[in-house]
Amino acid sequence: MLTIRKVECFLLSCPLPEPLVLPYFGGERRILKRDAMLIRVETCEGIVGYAPGPATARAKDAIEKVVAPFLAGRGLADPDALRVHFVDGPGRDWDLLKAFCAVEIALFDAVGKAKDLPISELIGGRIRDRIRLYGSAGMYMPPERYAEEAHAIFQLGFRAYKMRAGIGPEDDLKTVRLMRAAVGPDFDLMVDAHTWWRMGDRNYVSATIDRLAEQLADYHVAWLEEPLPPEDHEAYHRLRELDFVPIAAGEHEPTEHSFMDLIFTESVDYVQMDVVSQGGLPTARRLLAEVAHAGLKFAFHSWGTALEVIVAAQLGVCWPDMVVEWLEYPCYSAPSRAGMYPFPLSAEILKDPVEISQGDLIVPTGPGLGVEVDERVIERYPWIPGPWSTWSFEGTDRVRGMYADPSEKWPGS
Predict the structure, then answer these.
(1) What are phi and psi for residue 225, nearest 5 degrees?
(2) Is 173 in the same domain as 90?
(3) Predicted local distance difference test score (pLDDT) of residue 202
(4) DSSP 296-340
(5) DSSP H/E element including 15
(6) Cα dist. 242→183, 237, 239, 294 in Å?
(7) Are 146 and 174 in contact (CB under 8 A)?
(8) Which of 63, 227, 347, 360 is the most exposed place for a label (fewest CB within 10 A)?
(9) Total domains present in the chain
(10) pLDDT over 70 for what percent of the chain?
(11) Measuring CA to CA, which residue among 197, 216, 264 is closest to residue 237?
(12) What are the residue ranges of helices labelled H in 231-317?
């Protein structure tokens, strides 16, 4: 049996060369940097497990002050058993439990390395070796630019593209029309409306959202994501009952109970979850069983580094694609690659690039997560305190900061 020697976590920041200024319908957004957390668990036997974590000072504080002291010196035979003990103590606090569940991924990585098994075999057993990706980019641009980027993502070999709407109802619709013309009928398009409900004084009202959903149906979008306040499940159910387009939501659910309500009320077609920030592998495993039972579908939210993508994939391949259909793959820009903005840390956190074939991620079969982490990123990308993005609202002097916790309420909501 392994024995846990120490638990460490490192906050990392990757500043943009220049702040990215993005006007939207109702204000302006500035992106200053991107953040990440790397968790490192070392055993007395010399095995090291890694995990991504929520890139916030609050999460780091919880790990260093509560989770790490709790785990130090404990035997590591079964991460599930350690979590049960944690729940009986400090884990009664949901925020602390979420921090533990992020560290738990590193525990599974270490156990997998000790047993020479991939994490997928420790948490249910894989039934496939690949999972479909959608290229995720598109943020507050003129309609023509969205169309250009959709075509560029298509040329990279992805089979789907997700964009962020929010440049005004008419221009949002024009954007989707131009994107569909650019990529043809057999390429999936996802519309992330995560700004429509947090525009300060210029929120899209319910009738506008209904009308846009009906119009988007003409362009056969794969789903419309978060067009309403995340806590208003009744409104989501009503919109889904109109049956214009498939509806997706979940990345802002604050607790497992709220996730279950989203599922039990069948308020969406696609349940989304960020494994790293919203409860880790145990919560996701319980949700997936309920998603399958309800006849819904699941789509991973993954909005960070390649390490986060790998974690989600190790769980996703334990389920058939009729349940877990999609995994989000953030497309960051490089000199020769289309994408939102540069975030080199995303790829550099791994020693070797992930393998993508015909728009699918080929999930590693090596022990643990199946990838090698490059710890040099810890020195290369030192932490820069403060929000990674800010929002200002038209007609006010109000500015709100945004941090790297998907369940946190968004500015303007």
Answers:
(1) -105, 125
(2) no
(3) 76
(4) -EEEE---S-HHHHHHHHHHHTTS-TTTEEEEEEE---BTTB-SS
(5) strand 2-24
(6) 27, 9, 5, 19
(7) no
(8) 347
(9) 2
(10) 96
(11) 264
(12) 233-242, 256-264, 280-294, 306-316
For position 196, what pLDDT does the model report?
Answer: 74
Q: Which residues contact 63 (CB under 8 A, 6 or more apart)?
A: 7, 9, 39, 53, 99, 102, 103
Across the chain, mean pLDDT equals: 94
CB 352 within 8 A of CB 158: no
**Token digits of residue 11:** 């906050």
How far apart are the C-alpha atoms of 178 and 180, rounded to whole Å? 5
pLDDT digits 0-9 by tens, 279-324: 999 999 999 999 999 999 999 999 999 999 999 999 999 999 999 9
- Indicate if 352 and 381 belong to the same structural domain: no
pTM: 0.95
Question: Which residues contact residue 314 at a Cβ distance below 8 angstroms, ignoring those fewer than 6 apart?
Answer: 118, 119, 120, 123, 126, 363, 369, 370
In 111-209, DSSP assigns E strands to: 130-139, 160-164, 188-192
pLDDT digits (tens, 9 = 90+) for 207-264: 999 999 999 999 999 999 999 999 999 999 999 999 999 999 999 999 999 999 999 9
Task: Please state the separation of Cα 342 from the chain's center in Å.
Answer: 18
Distance of alpha carbon 330 from alpha carbon 404, whole angstroms: 15
Please check whether residue 320 is in contact with residue 127, taking contact to mean a CB–CB distance below 8 angstroms: yes
Q: 52 and 178, same structural domain? A: no
pLDDT, mean of residues 42-64:
97
Q: Of the ranges 104-108, 132-136, 193-197, which one carries the lowest mean pLDDT score? A: 193-197
pLDDT of residue 410: 55
Q: Are residues 20 and 109 located together in one domain of the fold?
A: yes
Give the CATH number for residue 321.
3.20.20.120
Same domain for 101 and 185, yes or no, is no
Instruction: Quote the CA–CA distance of 108 and 47 in Å, as a whole number.
Output: 12
> Do 273 and 288 share a domain, yes or no?
yes
